Amino acid sequence: MGEFAIRLFVLSLLLFVFGAFSALCFSRRTKWANVLAHCSSFFGGLFGATTALFVLSTKHPIIVTAWTIVSDVVLRLKVDMLSAYFLFVISFVTIAVSVYSLGYVTEYYGKKPMGLLGSGLNLFVLSMIAVVTVDHSVSFLIAWELMSLLSFLLVMVEHEKAETRKAGYVYVVMTHFGTVFIILSFLTLFFFTKHLDFSSFTQTAAHLPASVKNIIFLLSLIGFGTKAGMIPLHVWLPRAHPAAPSHISALMSAVMIKTAIYGLLRVNYDFLKGGATWWGAVVLGIGVLSAVLGILFGVAENDMKRFLAFSSAENIGIIFMGLGASLLFRSYHEPLLGALALTALLYHVLNHAIFKGLLFMGAGSVLYATHTKNINELGGLIRRMPWTAVLFLIGGMSLAAFPPLNGFMSEWTTFQSLLHLSFSLDHPIWKTVGGLLAAALGLTGAFVAGSVVKHFGTAFLALPRTPHAAKANEVPLAMRFGMIVLACGTIAFGVWPGLVLRMTNRITESYFHQSLTGRAMLYIPFHRSAESISLGWTTIIFFAILLLLITLLRVWVGKSNNRYDETWNCGTPLVQTMEYTGTSYSHPVLMIFKRLYGIERKVEVQGEYAYYPKRIRHRLKTEAIIETKLYRPLILGTVWLSQRLRAIQSGNLQSYLAYMIITLIVLLLWIR
């Protein structure tokens, strides 16, 4: 059976390679390039997901050795329990995106080279699979760099637009900023272990001095956190994701940023075997900051894809909260609670990949049909695009953690983990902080729900605001089917969480020697049955009381008589200008947090009489506060320092020789 899994995995990789090269070979035949590229990626994802499920079900890792790059650097792909889980996440989303892309990329026929676009998608997915399966630090960095460069090229598909070029440049700078810290973390491991392969790191890194482990933790947190989009290192995310084609945005937001979570888990659990208590506290702090600020920035957005990008930062914050809680419980020697928190973050990794991929494809469908992402230019799409509306609503409800969809189950498990900081740790600080963190997660959920209502209501309900919205048509069948695949995932993994627990238990068993049952998600606190509150019974009782009240009202009041008619508007017809816009919907939140947004507000009244104006113009301009207060001073300081350092570039050969001699002397003294 192991040989069968290896062959299946190799076949999956070869299909992505075939899809990349066949698309290039048929680049002049646009339809052929489209079909070959995306059918290959579909079957590659299907075989990859099957391989992952096989490894997780049998608990037998598989190893594929390709070739020796240089001495002691071997390209070896190892699919263990952690790799298999992330391989499943990547492959499952790839299956849906491949089907969706068959219809979506027709928008680029005659505009962009289809061979390059199809080839880029296959190689991008292949690079992500390599990142989560390679077993050597050098090959990991090669795969990581390929993933970054390929995603940069895909972001720059519409490079003729100035905002796309700016987004691409910001992305490539930030991703290489993070890569520098990842390289430094691996170099630190190499300096103390004298090895570069992951197996040696796993065997020896846990015995390093505490100060060295702290340095590695911080370096990896900054490096992988930049790719994950944690605040304040998120500045590339709301630029790159909206600029990329929507099927690429779905892959980047759904799975690419999760490779950073894989890296953090690999370093902190496999290599370092956990660490000091403050590790978990730092990650928790970053998580709550990213979750709250991410959705607050998202509330202000009227661009559907920018909102979803900020929402990705918010969900990365939720994942970080699970990671921080898990590290914290591990430091306090609470393996069962650590396993619960680790399950929460792994569960949310999968769930966010599914519903965020669905939402980006839904936003792409709106863009495909109307040629705009601005919700203030939409409206009434539920009549013109009913399939897209329903599927987008399912994704939005999952994003807002509405039961029984998958987003609710993983956020509920995270909520459980945060509550257990108060319930189960004896330290008085955590009894207070745990409750505050749980409250912050609840506040985040409220803002997310409001944002989903804003975007769905403004885009899909009421009357069309522009001719583009009025003339929109439903998207092709392939695009709808791709969204349906992920919509089914949001329902299945929410109603049957045991499907996910069977996979996550393989990982928690290896790190905590613990496996969880459904009780972990349905009881608070789940490990003290005498004091437990059952979520299942509470839900049943709630719906029973609700049904009883409805029955009593029906008996008491009787059957209601409803009449449907045109909405009353004081005798005047309803027009589009009377509708709520996205800006007006989020206006109260913007005013409450105006210092965070840096708002400039202008109200212009036109008309002869002040009390009977003909037109009122209300303009709000928000400012990227983190960029202006943090990044702009850093950039200005860097420019100033660079100008000062230009003084050493005198053009004098003797000066350059002196610099070289001084550098050699310093190096010799350092390594002596």
TrEMBL record:
Major place of residence: membrane
Keyword Cell membrane attributed: yes
TM helices/strands, residue ranges: 32-55, 85-102, 114-132, 138-157, 169-192, 215-236, 248-265, 277-300, 307-329, 349-369, 390-409, 429-456, 477-496, 535-557, 653-671
UniProt domain NADH:quinone oxidoreductase/Mrp antiporter transmembrane: residue ranges: 138-422
Top-level taxon: Bacteria
Keywords: Cell membrane, Membrane, Oxidoreductase, Transmembrane, Transmembrane helix
GO cellular component, one term: plasma membrane
InterPro entries: ComplexI-like_HydComp, ND/Mrp_TM
Record's subcellular location: Cell membrane; Membrane
Listed GO MF terms: oxidoreductase activity
Membrane topology field: Multi-pass membrane protein
Presence of keyword Transmembrane helix: yes
NCBIfam families: PRK06521.1
Protein's recorded name: Hydrogenase 4 subunit B
Organism phylogeny: Bacteria, Bacillati, Bacillota, Bacilli, Bacillales
